[in-house]
């Protein structure tokens, strides 16, 4: 950590900062420059991060040098983590091909979607039973009935299933039916939820919050890892921006950015990122080319009758033709699924 | 609602849209223009909002005309809502002067802060017992012990108290000790939490999410109102932006923007919005001039030893001098507290 | 265009709007709904766009239906435009592989870069002679001397050259030496510059402004096209965002988004978008997979001694290995260069 | 400047960095920590800023300690700068009350606006003769004819006048007619324009770019100051954001943020910032309360017939009632105009 003092800070102020650092058992290195004095601090930076050094009179800036996450960092684990969801592997060259409707509506509709996506190459089935909706007047999901449908259709088509959990109290229920938890973008910093999911060993698909930096995303993963659950798969799904012709802005560079800093797998959700069926296929291909460990795509057999997010769903036929292109690209990139 | 069809949409496509609208018991008005056909829909727009009309072939754009919130709207209630927190009124000319430390640390520290802020004019005491922290390694709050301290110090100084609730399971506990719930920015779209707070009658201070639009904020208020709790006070606390010299960007225009669309009170939190003690006083004054129903300011007797967000806290003396200026400005604006 | 009136607008207000529309020779279609009256306007929407209808009492919202650009639109020209830069084609399946240093520093340095990039597959050489620098104290470019070096080295290696023009007065000079103008992100809305470049017939590489929407970018292209110059190539180079670990946020979906709305070619500049050499190769690959008509990459033989933007430049060897991967991906996508 | 080396950087890499620093005549201070080595550099940081140290192998981060602007900094000039525009003073307790239409349309219309605003308390008249318009098909301004009208009406009502200059070639012409140049948001980084305006001594109103940070704004002021023109007045006019109910997001905290770092005056333009007449008055009041040195407000006698930006203009009567409130607030704040 580096502490930059204001120009004109007094010797008493400088001494006070030094004393505070020593109280914590750390060693200050003072460099008195022409314009400013700078203090480098050697030792366990985490001790200092909890300290509001910025509030000490005379301090201009406090600059952390180390990353605030540990277990999630590439320095902690050099090798790519591979997360197992049922028989499906994610990371280390293995792609997750997650597909399904936004919300589970009925056994018949889910079945009608699951068959074709499985055939097209999807290896994990998704569907929401608890839906976070901006409006209290929108469809809120089928709850446990939806979870049962999801499990049954997943078993029928031999696909593990992933579904969102919004509230810590839903964890035991969702754990019973699903192979993987999804933490939605709106809950990426619901820290109680993160901690309690961290206490299970079930894989988690953690979506990036709409205004989360890459560092924030890795800090949320750290919450889960710190509780003992190492099975975290991250998901870029777009962030809020001024561009109004897409639902969100897909931050494609987050893929290699995360991979440089962390050993955790990261996939991309072009459906929520763009909100437009015409943009999903090129963004799915770009994700694979960027090195993503999979894609998460919404598919619906009748988007115009979907109870949630219909306009951004692909038809099963369009999904199948996209998957043919992805297959060739995955081969070129040396990835399997 | 207006449905714009793509140039070159076929008569069959147009008929299909019309039929879908009629199925819902609504009346379509078709205008065939030179370049595009447009269909206006008359009737209860909410029926349509649940329908993914955008996904129908031939549809280019679906444009809602009505606001998606009802109970929160100015059209629903013309008069400014006044929310009572203990003996303190918020809204309709009454200002909430909320002050206190970020986190409750001990009885002694809170007492040392509460006395001076009460004397300076604060009318509600704040302090966090459950803290949402980006890092799992940061101080997470004292929990119930903190709540007891907050209540005791509030009673000692005759101030109602407000504190954050992060998880629906904490509601009964927090309800017992606090006079007002706070919903933090990270939980503005934690819909289960909103619904269950909506089932109490205790006032709620609802902070705007870091990437929430003004409409999103009002939709979250609608969740609480729809469950029966009318006592919602909104809070602008800055949004994420590219400006890196402040913690967030304070969207000051949200104050009159909300007041034009809604009858609910709105206050401003310049502490979290700016993260800088030098910017808090001018932003607090600007908030009152903009028509805010109060300000929420972090105060700490020793910011450099605060366990959370010390660098953005004002010292009690600085808070007192600010309150003198606010007093004169409130008089000029015809507001009381 | 659709004009939505406020709830409770008076018949006199409605008549006033109708009269104003008729004055312009257009036909209003009035739909009186339960809550609001809506007026659809049929005819040349451009006549109306210049009119501040929003300011008429009683008007709540004015919603344009047509796109504000014409010559740049896919509706105007169905087929992909192919822009010729010397013997290089851009668009319609032909990729622009633009490479070179940020700034032209000397004949020797440029030569040392141009040789390897040409060998690796680059087909256009770039280099700045006039540099827009945030600080007045930074290197501002070599001016005409730089242009001469660029032309000479381009001829030596048989590559057409592209360079930035910042001021309309530089157009004749730059036109003499370069095969393609570059309009930088900071000048995307320098309308005098756009108009005067529009009066030449030389190809233009137009970079997206840091806070420009896709529509803004297409409107700036419209400025050039409207003056008679059809040779516009667009360039996504990242926009400003809250993410602080990359220089800008690469909006990859702008590629298919532009291609859906416009016939103009669009390439991607991952160097400025990310500002990080570790992210440039995966983003270049993703760009090609997303359908971009080329990539623009900064290469420097000694980044640590570069006079501008050294930290984001690739070494020639890294560029060559990236180009091998791009070659295979381009083959898969059916693109040539 | 602080240079942080990567964990595991070799002694040879560290030596190479040290050597490079010494080559520049500067002194490196090396601190070898447990995890990382840090090098503090003492001396003229500007020498280093031009050097791409980040690109040196083994370097993880380069952290500048000093601000990149000098002449604009509060450290350079402690006292508030007062800029004189005709007989009007701006800064140091003197408020600029700039008002007028977006574009100059005719002598009669400008006269009809100037009279009432002068009477209401405006002290500088504005109006655009050269208009930067997103669309090439929108009204582009009257040019020199507009400048004459502006000067004549300004003289008639005894008000100095300000108008935008978009192109360096317009400087001599605008200089002849106007008392103050305006640099628009889109030209804040048109560096040739900045330099040439810096070579005049005429006051400049410099608007913040739509994606400019506060530091970027001060760097653009530095361009003008560095050429010898000290008469720069900054203007906050909103930045691009995801909030779609206002034209831009007014960054009110930029006012005290600039004042802390710089001696230059800063005013606020709530018209362009919000784009909504209902939000302009509260934002104008908030600006004065935040410490702004004035406000810039668009006024039009018939907004619905205005040739540019009509919907965001106030009627003269609304402007007058706002000015009454501002008068009282200015008195309270100890400001005069």
Short characterization:
Four copies of one chain form a homotetramer. Chain A is an alpha/beta fold and about 325 residues long.
CATH superfamily assignment of the largest domain in chain A? Aldolase class I
Major sheet strand order of chain A: 13-12-11-10-9-8-7-14
Annotation, overall tally of beta strands of chain A: 14
Number of helical runs of chain A? 11
Number of domains of chain A: 2
Fraction in beta strands of chain A: 15-25%
Task: Please summarize the sheet with the most strands of chain A.
Answer: 8 strands, parallel
Rg measurement of chain A, Å = 23 Å
Measured distance between first and last alpha carbons of chain A: 43 Å
Descriptive account of the structure:
The structure is a homotetramer of 337-residue chains. Chain A has 337 residues and is of the alpha/beta class. Chain A has 2 domains: 2-63, Alpha-Beta Plaits (2-Layer Sandwich), CATH 3.30.70; 83-333, Alpha-Beta Barrel (TIM Barrel), CATH 3.20.20.70. The first copy, chain A, is built from 11 helices and 14 strands. In chain A, helix 10 (280-290) packs parallel to helix 11 (316-333). Chains in contact: A-B, A-C, A-D, B-C, B-D, C-D. The interface between B and D is large, with 37 and 37 residues.
Topology:
The structure is a homotetramer of 337-residue chains.
Chain A: E1 2-5, H1 11-23, E2 27-32, E3 37-42, H2 45-49, E4 59-63, E5 83-85, E6 88-90, E7 96-100, H3 107-120, E8 124-126, H4 144-156, E9 161-164, H5 171-177, E10 180-183, H6 191-198, E11 204-207, H7 214-226, E12 232-236, H8 254-261, E13 266-268, H9 270-274, H10 280-290, E14 294-298, H11 316-333
Parallel strand pairs in A: 7-8, 7-14, 8-9, 9-10, 10-11, 11-12, 12-13
Antiparallel strand pairs in A: 1-3, 1-4, 2-3, 5-6
Helix pairs in contact in A: 3-4, 3-11, 6-7, 10-11
């Amino acid at each position: 950590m580096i502490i930059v003092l204001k120009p004109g800070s007094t010797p008493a102020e400088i001494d006070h900062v030094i004393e505070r650092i020593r109280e914590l058992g750390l060693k200050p290195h003072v460099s008195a420059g022409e314009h400013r004095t700078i203090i480098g601090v050697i030792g366990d930076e985490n001790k200092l991060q909890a300290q509001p050094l910025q509030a000490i009179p005379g301090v201009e800036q406090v600059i952390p040098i180390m990353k605030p996450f540990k277990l999630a960092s590439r320095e902690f684990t050099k090798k790519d983590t591979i997360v197992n969801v049922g028989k499906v592997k994610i990371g280390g060259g293995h792609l997750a091909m997650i597909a399904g409707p936004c919300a589970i509506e009925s056994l018949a509709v889910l079945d009608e979607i699951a068959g074709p996506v499985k055939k097209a190459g999807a290896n994990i089935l998704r569907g929401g039973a608890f839906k976070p909706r901006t409006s209290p007047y929108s469809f809120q999901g089928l709850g446990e009935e939806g979870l049962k449908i999801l499990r049954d259709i997943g078993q029928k088509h031999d696909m593990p299933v992933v579904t969102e959990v919004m509230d810590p109290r839903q964890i035991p229920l969702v754990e019973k039916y699903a192979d993987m938890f999804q933490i939605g973008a709106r809950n990426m910093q619901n820290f109680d939820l993160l901690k309690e999911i961290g206490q299970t060993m079930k894989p988690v698909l953690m979506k990036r919050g709409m205004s989360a930096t890459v560092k924030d995303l890795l800090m949320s993963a750290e919450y889960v890892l710190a509780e003992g659950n190492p099975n975290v798969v991250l998901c870029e799904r777009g962030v809020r921006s001024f561009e109004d012709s897409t639902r969100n802005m897909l931050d494609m560079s987050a893929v290699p950015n995360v991979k440089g800093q962390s050993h955790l797998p990261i996939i991309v959700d072009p459906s929520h990122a763009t909100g437009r069926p015409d943009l999903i296929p090129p963004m799915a291909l770009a994700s694979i080319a960027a090195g993503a460990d999979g894609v998460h795509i919404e598919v619906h057999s009748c988007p115009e009758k979907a109870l949630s997010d219909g306009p951004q769903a692909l038809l099963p036929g369009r999904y199948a033709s996209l998957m043919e292109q992805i297959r060739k690209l995955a081969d070129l990139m040396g990835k399997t699924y």
